[in-house]
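Below is how a single chain appears once it has passed through the pipeline. First comes the sequence as given, then the structure the pipeline wrote out for it. We keep one example in the README because the format questions we get most often are answered faster by looking than by reading.
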Amino acid sequence: MTIYLPFEFNIIPPEKVLRIGVFGFGKTGKAVSSILLKEKTTHLEWVVRASHALEHRSVPEFLGIDSDEPGLIYSLEEFLEDGFLDKHPVDIIVDFSSEDAIYSYGPKAIERSIAVVTAISFYPKEQQRYLNELGKSIKILWSPNITLGINFLILAAKTLQSILPGLDIEIVEEHFKLKSEVSGTAIKIADALSVDHKDIKMIRAGGIIGVHEIIFGFPYQTVRLRHESISREAFGRGAHFASLELTKKDKVGLYKMEDILGPYFVSSNIEYLPDVPIDRPKLGVVQKYLFGARNAFRKRMH
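Resulting structure:
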């Protein structure tokens, strides 16, 4: 079964161009930086990497992208110096580096109310506790796989499971030969569907970037939901979308990708929402929007 997104992302541009700093400049970090450089709604201010290699090199020049954005590369040591963010302020930090990087930028993010989007595939419990602490002071989003497709797949799978609970479910993940551990994305899918981690099936071969498949076994049919990462730029698209949406949140907190993707998923099925008066007490802002949109949709249909 091939999945096509049933909605369009009508992304409302922010009031100002978002200044972004990126942690990590490996294969994925480079791909993410290239997307952020090409987007009109974001401005790549800098990239931080642990080593001094490529220090003060221009990211646009290094990647061969025509851009007037500064996007210089700095070492972690330089980032930690007092005054770095005075000289190079940002609105959002996007992290594709390592599980310990949050301790480097976390205190500075709190001090300056900088939002954080982190796409680290796995955090140990200690770092997860720190993420929750950060969420008490700033807007922070953590997604083990920040691609739009994989997060839609999870929402679609949860919907199918809610319709027919008790189905046989198998989760299969495929990655490059040298990746030894179970993917963080597969674990996230398993948690969303209440599947034991030990039941995740792993395939390791060649240079597969990432494939995740959920198999639903019905009595007389089989449904397969499959997502394949063709290019690492998909992570850049997801990080860009998450950054724009996170800045629209009214409250600080630790968010998931589903928190910002969910309303789009619901709004594509507005005509099926129950009849609820828009002026109903205690109705949330998003619900009021959805019910209002539903009513407008029904008027157009009639």
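Residues 1-12 have pLDDT under 50 and may be disordered.

See the next section for the split statistics.
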